[in-house]
């Protein structure tokens, strides 16, 4: 970890772990997943926190807290676990890069639209966490250098499948909703299907690659 972690009780069977950054969340989640003892039910990442859910009958919360602290205090192990790979093979998402904001976003970043698309496609993304809406994955990458400002005024309707950029994240809207991300393209991939198992195409820890399709 790049800084200290803070553990907070979250009911009789969970701990909320606060860390300095989203990158630290990814590293800690991978390290905990790689060394999880019996009794760990779920690891739920967010932007700056990780919820560790346990079965207290087989793993007391106090024991889980000691395990989390031990792993968090081993930064080399956490980095190695995060770099070892994702939870399964990369998910390839095909995108038609004719988003409404592509040209303006490229101009803000000092790039041509073609160069921005090239960087987006060449980047190996990781699902940091799920939020905002069911199946909406916040994607991060170590080699993505751009801090993209959100729109000054959010759209009231963003179509399902819209692929956008905001801050250091990329993501795709699983359904029509309001949104303030800058839209660079659109995908026909089914990102959320409550009848599927699992219902979300993109889950925390997965690697994601974008592939340009269409004109």
From TrEMBL:
Q: Which residues cross the membrane?
A: none
Q: Nucleotide-binding: present as a keyword of the record?
A: yes
Where is the Carboxyltransferase domain positioned along the sequence? 5-202
List the molecular function annotations (GO) for this entry.
hydrolase activity
| Protein's UniProt keywords contain Transcription regulation | no
Lineage of the organism? Bacteria, Bacillati, Actinomycetota, Actinomycetes, Micrococcales
Keywords of the record, alphabetical order, are: ATP-binding, Hydrolase, Nucleotide-binding
Q: What is this protein called?
A: Allophanate hydrolase subunit 1
Q: Which Pfam families match?
A: CT_C_D (PF02682)
Xref: InterPro entries: CT_C_D (IPR003833), Cyclophilin-like_dom_sf (IPR029000), PxpB (IPR010016)
Superkingdom classification of source = Bacteria
